[in-house]
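REQUEST ID: PR-0412
SUBMITTED BY: lab tech R.K.
PRIORITY: routine
TASK: structure prediction, single protein chain
INPUT:
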Amino acid sequence: MSSSAEATNVLLGKSDSLHQEVLSSFPLCDLTEEDLIENPQFCKLLAILAQHVDQSGLTVPLKTELDKAEQKLQSQRRQWLRFESLYRSLQEMVQDQRVRKHHATVPPDQTMFCETMERCLLVAQCVRQLDPSSTTNPDQPSVLGLSPEHVMELMPSEKNVQRMKQSVPQQLEKHLKDKSLSLLSYYQPDWESESEGLKVMKLSHLSAQLDKDKKRAASLQEHNKENTVLLQRQSQLYLTELTKCIQLLQTLILHHRLTVQTDLDKKKLEYFEGKCELVLQKIKTEMLEIQLETYTPDTIAAHKKMREKLECEQKACKAEKQSVELKLASFEILGKEFQALAEEYCRLRQEMEVKSWAVKEFTHYNK
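STATUS: complete
OUTPUT:
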């Protein structure tokens, strides 16, 4: 590790596990230990920053305020869910009553109970829609000129409302019980054939079982995320190593190809040399066969002697030619003046030959 990285460890009072602590403090950042080693100052900054922020990147005061706001929101949400679930359960009871009326005879008191409750729910919904909130303009005209007092006049009689309120807990408990048993049957279809008492006993443990399954699913999901991150890192390492292996394989292939090509060229050269030698020997053999078929042995021997004599004469002529060419070259070095003298010498030589021939002829004629 570099000197700056060592200074960082001494300054922060950290050990060699500083990089791992930084990585665990910022799990959402796509960083590796190699990145922190190559950038020690950035590692130092992250280590100092980890003392002031959490893993999500929020500061400690902001995290505290966020937790308080989250708790308040959860409390209001639970309260809203409590009233919403009660309201929807009452609506479901009304709908179930409507369905039963088409399939069987319903007692009059049950019919009166459901009609009273349905009317109360409808009036309550209208009142809530007409009641202005704290953010609306109080001078804004209401819907159709109605007010909550006008809608409250449509409520059933007080007697029916009191009777309905007395029956609501019992009817709601029965409805929720039937719905819970249906949920239990859906969660575990094998328990549908069991007795109602056993179902009720198992229903008391359903919430704990659902929480357990929910935690198990969350744990599996978190484990799946960790495996995904690990798989991505392993895939990157695998691709890096695979690239190195491919480069090494290319180098080996190129070296092996060059070595094999050299050996192959050498073998081909030896093959062609042998083949040429074989062809030459075959040509000589054919020439000898043609000579034997054309001439007798004595004629061949005479031809050899004649060939040797001609070759000797050819060598002598070539030697004489080279000697004359050397003399001629030495004469050419003397220049144009010597050429004029040489021409004059040739002319006089020719005249001397002519006169010598004339003297010989005259002498021969006088005899």
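NOTES: The chain has twelve helices and no strands.
REVIEWED BY: pending
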